[in-house]
Write a structure and sequence with these properties.
The chain has 402 residues and is α/β, with parallel strands linked by helices. The protein is built from 10 helices and 21 strands. The chain is 25% helix and 28% strand. It starts with a strand and ends with a strand.
């Protein structure tokens, strides 16, 4: 039995912040205690004094294409390892490798590479954030709300489940890892697609859509419960055509996620979203792409040129020149930004951990400091810098120790 005590911390819990600590046994949280209480019988090597720092659940990024020069859709094992180590140092303990639309062959190649990396992570000591699954952004989305996605790879659903096998794996409902798909419910076969994916264990998210509220109601009934990078790539809000924005803000059964970089969404809009959805209905994502963490410049991503200038991305060429194309923010920066709009820290952490976990259907194990949960934890200072990160109860990043 392995065990580790983290004490003298400010615990960021689901309902607030309190002094205390946690006891970890065999990779899971065995006890959460308050104040100066601490279990007896542990050796000095089995205890870490956090000296009043924040102890929080590890952040979970359910929508990330890459960072640190790595594109998850075209990455070697070594590159994925580099990405995972970069993300862990930014407070992300788990993430979903997010794919843009491509052809069948490239889907299979990218999936095989991610699956091999997941298998290697499960059988080795933690050395970075864990890949928790794959998120397919498209290809079943609206051409009118394509954003930076390539329309030549878009599809409609023909009603034949065999055409979905690349996305659903072997067709079993007990997939070996979580899968998500962002889709537009108004495309041909869209509602049947949601039902089929849901039945196969794939979470259907709404996004890149022009669906009207009546269609969105039908999508909800079919199994779609979440909206991707709200309100981007949705029909703009209009008082006579409310669309997915008004519907998403008002529908209590639907969660949303957003890119809080102050480029994709204005701070005032973030405040409106947080007020309407509360911290229990809104998640943070990075939507980060390969150049994240590399500074300004022009980069080749998905075979297109994307310029990065002071945190803003934009397509360089073609009819879509100037269109925002992903982000270069990290989840740690998104956490800091959302608190600057007035969201309390414990609610902001829920947006970065518990709500993404729930949207992805992995909340039985992830997202909270709670007895029985996996001990994927981060230690933050007052400026949101990550001091320590644990994956499965083991220290996998130590700012002081490397």
């Amino acid at each position: 039995m392995s065990q580790l005590l983290l004490h003298n911390a400010r615990l960021i819990l689901d309902d607030g912040i309190q002094r205390g600590g946690v006891l970890i046994r065999d990779g899971r949280i065995a006890q959460v205690f308050s104040g100066e209480q601490r279990p007896a019988g542990l050796s000095a090597k089995e205890a870490i004094d956090l000296n009043g720092a924040y102890l929080a659940p590890g952040m979970i990024d359910i929508h990330i294409h890459g960072s640190a020069g790595v594109d998850v859709q075209n990455a070697s094992h070594e590159q994925l390892q580099r990405l995972s180590e970069f993300l862990l140092a930014e407070g992300v303990t788990g993430y979903f490798a997010t794919f843009v639309p491509t052809d069948e062959r490239r889907y299979h190649e990218a999936i095989a590479a991610i699956e091999a990396f997941i298998a290697a992570q499960r059988h080795g000591a933690p050395r970075g954030a864990q890949v928790l699954g794959i998120h397919f952004e498209g290809p079943f989305v609206s051409r009118k709300r394509c954003g930076a996605l390539k329309t030549e790879h878009f599809r409609v659903y023909d009603g034949d489940p065999r055409s979905l096998q690349v996305f659903t794996g072997n067709g079993e409902s007990n997939l070996s890892y979580a899968r998500l798909m962002t889709l537009a419910p108004e495309i041909d076969g869209g509602l049947d697609l949601i039902r089929e994916l849901t039945g196969k264990g794939v979470r259907a998210f709404i996004g890149h859509t022009e669906a009207v509220p009546e269609r969105l109601d039908a999508a909800l009934a079919a199994g779609a419960r979440h909206i991707t990078h709200f309100p981007n790539a949705l029909t703009p809000l209009h008082h006579r055509q409310p669309g997915a924005i008004a519907w998403g803000l008002l529908c209590d059964d639907v969660t949303i996620d957003c890119i809080a970089d102050f480029h994709h969404v204005h701070p005032l809009m973030l405040r409106l979203m947080a007020k309407a959805k509360t911290a229990r209905g809104m998640a943070l994502i990075s939507d980060a792409i390969q150049p994240a963490g590399l500074g300004n410049g022009t980069f080749k991503v998905w075979d297109i040129n994307i310029a990065v200038q002071d945190g803003l991305t934009a397509l360089v060429d073609g009819p879509g020149a100037g269109t925002i194309a992903g982000s270069v923010i990290t989840m740690r920066e998104a956490l800091r930004n959302i608190t600057r709009t007035g969201v309390p820290l414990h609610d902001a952490l829920a947006m970065a951990s518990a709500i993404p976990a729930r949207a992805a259907g992995i909340d039985a194990d992830y997202g909270l400091i709670k007895v029985g949960k996996r001990a994927d934890l981060i230690v933050l200072d007052e400026d949101f810098n990550v001091q320590l990160a644990l994956v499965g109860g083991a220290v996998a990043f130590d700012k002081e120790g490397g």
